[in-house]
Amino acid sequence: MSEVRQQLLITLVHGTWPRGLFPRIVRFKHWVRALVRRQPRGPLIFWFEEGSPFLARLGTELGDVPHKITPLLWSGANSIFVRDKTAQVLAEHLSGEHAQHPQATQLVIAHSHGGNIALRALHHLKQGKASPSCVESVNPLVVTLGTPFMEVHPADFGRRPFYIRVALTIFVMGPILFLLLGLLGWFLSLIFVPLEPLLPVLVAGTPFLVLIMGRWWVVWRAPARQNQLVALEDATRLSGLWSTQRLLVIRAIDDEASLTLSLGAILNYLAARSIAVVLLFYLVLAFSVRTARLMGLLPWLPKWPLVFVLLGCFPLTIILFGLLFLGRSWYGRELAVSPLECQINIHSTPDATSPSKIVTLVRRTFARSLRHGIYDHEDCAKVIADWVRSQLTARGQEVENRNAL
Question: For residue 148, which of 347, 358, 333 has the smallest C-alpha distance?
């Protein structure tokens, strides 16, 4: 048996919020469970830490294959750019490890968004962005666990982004600026200036400031939005890597992370469409009422309905923008305020020409853990070990064939 089949260097990459969204609550639940079961309270061990059940099962399944496990710890922030920087760190780790052990087989096991980090690391290796000069020969095995493969692409949504920005300017920034100017006038009136002469200035100044801010938001910020869109697209690019890479995708049915991201996509669509509808409704209503009053068709029509509608549009638009920001931020915090001219591609498997293997693990017994924690599945470690053994065998045969030639 060759050295290639004997030596296996494993790198573990955890996903977003590896210790939970609220770590203190997770530790408290662990303490309560130990108290209820009247068991001594042991340390809370996560899947990528030494002594975890997953690593114990994986070591048992690998059996006589010598291996070394190294976790790659990162902040776990829900950020596209942080994940891309972590991918660069992983690429440098893999290239440095390969330089020290050129005959060893490297394996990356990544969970959740850690899978995107692993594939981005392959991208950086392919682009030669890692520091050592041997990156071209680095060809690790990659296993992803419950990864929502994500890419950001530019998109043309017509006038909808323009309507959304105009609605943000009128219904959100406008009232806020009016309140700020009102507070400023009230403050000045307390010092030395009467409030009555300031009222015309406040009434005329608010639309002027709203117009200036709207122009800045809609027109002057366009180059910055385009640069950010290019950066997001580059930081999430996964395509073009699969013809030569060996990948095992392990996924679960009704994965909570995938369902949450799907809900985010629905919120994005509904909120964006609703904001545009609210804006058009108000503009049509205002134009119709103003035209009717000028033509004398409805001289009795008071002005208060427009004010009432405007006051109603303000909280409604705030809620819709909150849903829009919430839905987009689930993909990465940059997308909460990112250009609207982009679409987010999320799938349980990446676009590929020939991925090695895709496995869907099904739970047939009751388990308290979430489906997204697929590393707790009883067959997960076995599937990984069997696939790794087949890859080691194939690589050993390739080496023997080259030596025979």
Answer: 347
